[in-house]
Automatic annotation (TrEMBL):
Task performed by this protein: Glycogenin participates in the glycogen biosynthetic process along with glycogen synthase and glycogen branching enzyme. It catalyzes the formation of a short alpha (1,4)-glucosyl chain covalently attached via a glucose 1-O-tyrosyl linkage to internal tyrosine residues and these chains act as primers for the elongation reaction catalyzed by glycogen synthase.
Domain of life: Eukaryota
Protein's name in the database: glycogenin glucosyltransferase
InterPro entries: Glyco_trans_8, GNT1/Glycosyltrans_8, Nucleotide-diphossugar_trans
Associated pathway: Glycan biosynthesis; glycogen biosynthesis
Enzyme class: transferase
UniProt source species: Oikopleura dioica
Enzymatic reactions: L-tyrosyl-[glycogenin] + UDP-alpha-D-glucose = alpha-D-glucosyl-L-tyrosyl-[glycogenin] + UDP + H(+); [1,4-alpha-D-glucosyl](n)-L-tyrosyl-[glycogenin] + UDP-alpha-D-glucose = [1,4-alpha-D-glucosyl](n+1)-L-tyrosyl-[glycogenin] + UDP + H(+)
E.C. code: 2.4.1.186
One Pfam assignment: Glyco_transf_8
Family from the record: Belongs to the glycosyltransferase 8 family. Glycogenin subfamily.
Length: 327
């Protein structure tokens, strides 16, 4: 990275659930004082209100077409049918207004400054804990290029993805990741997988000070439950919820202050972590409603529905259909 280069972190949200993850990711990056710009790619299925809320956290929110592998067989093997549309992240290579970028999955949480990643070359990433000869595509350094984007699309059409998602495709395309240069293999602290803390607790305790990015891999995400999993990873689960609710609480306090000085007999409901609640003196029998919910209201309602479900809290499924570009 040289002086004058434009750098940025980019993520992808294709559902309101993952939009909640993207919002927390942005806050975590701001909290560690990044100097890079923050960009969020979103699909057309994200509501206008949610896009507006994302725009308050990111420097730029860009609507992109959905790219779907439609490889049901491979995705079934992974037991993650929703991962087909993760190929949409290939659009990040078209952000050529930036000299270098770091992609972060929306289910990641940054706990220490990682701006040093912009000194790395394409493609730099952390080994996947499931098959370390491959890199995990939840965090990677890349250089935007329309030529690379077009080559990736052609490669996807001709070769497909061995796992049906973006990780298989990117590992085949950048097949020399682990052999070209040791500098492209990032330390595990830049993409700490939840599964690893269960498999090797002593190592996590020994190297926990080196954790920079936490990646909530797998079907269970923080937004599916406030109850953290047992073990060392619970502290990061709690941190995720703390960052998520911090904005809600600030909004609630602001609304309380505004409503205190308002003489209307019916106060405006405000959002709380558990849903909408009336503030101040309300008319008897008044039931708070929100005829025009937007942004975090929509996301919060979606999360509340998940949290109140009597089911075993399955992973959120992508609720979008392929559009325009299909493989």
């Amino acid at each position: 990275m040289t002086i004058g280069e434009r750098i940025g972190f980019v993520t992808l949200a294709t559902t309101d659930s993952y939009a909640a993850g993207a919002l927390v990711l942005a806050r975590s990056l701001r909290q560690v004082n990044t100097v890079a710009e923050l960009v969020c790619l979103v699909s057309n299925s994200i509501s206008e209100g949610t896009r507006t809320r994302l725009a308050s956290e990111f420097d730029d929110v860009i609507v992109v077409d959905v790219l779907n592998s439609n490889d049901d067989a491979m995705l079934t093997l992974l037991k993650r049918p929703e991962l087909g549309v993760t190929l949409t992240k290939l659009h990040c290579w078209k952000l050529t207004q930036y000299n270098k970028m770091v992609f972060l999955d929306a289910d990641a949480l940054v706990v220490k400054n990682i701006d040093d990643l912009f000194q790395r070359e394409e493609i730099s990433a952390v080994a996947d804990c499931g098959w370390p000869s491959c890199f995990n595509s939840g965090v990677f350094v890349f250089k935007p290029s329309v030529d690379t984007f077009n080559e990736l699309i052609e490669f996807a059409k001709n070769e497909g993805s061995f796992d049906g998602g973006d990780q298989g495709l990117l590992n085949d395309f950048f097949s020399d990741w682990s052999t070209k240069s040791i500098d492209r293999i990032l330390p595990f602290g830049y993409n700490v997988h939840a599964a690893a803390t269960y498999a090797y607790v002593p190592a996590f305790r020994r190297f926990k000070d080196q954790v920079k990015v936490v990646h909530f891999l797998g079907s269970t995400k923080p937004w599916t439950s406030k109850n953290p999993p047992q073990g060392e990873f619970s502290q990061f689960w709690q941190l995720w919820w703390s960052l998520y609710e911090s904005n809600n609480q600030a909004k609630s306090s602001e609304n309380v202050s505004q409503n205190t000085s308002n003489n209307n007999s019916v106060e405006t409901p405000v959002m709380t972590p558990s849903g909408f609640a009336a503030v101040g003196q309300s008319q008897p029998g008044f039931t708070p409603t929100s005829p025009a919910k937007a942004g975090f209201d929509i996301i919060q309602d979606h999360l509340n529905a998940q949290l109140s479900s009597e089911a075993s809290e399955p992973a959120p499924k992508f609720d979008i259909k392929p559009s325009k570009v299909m493989f």
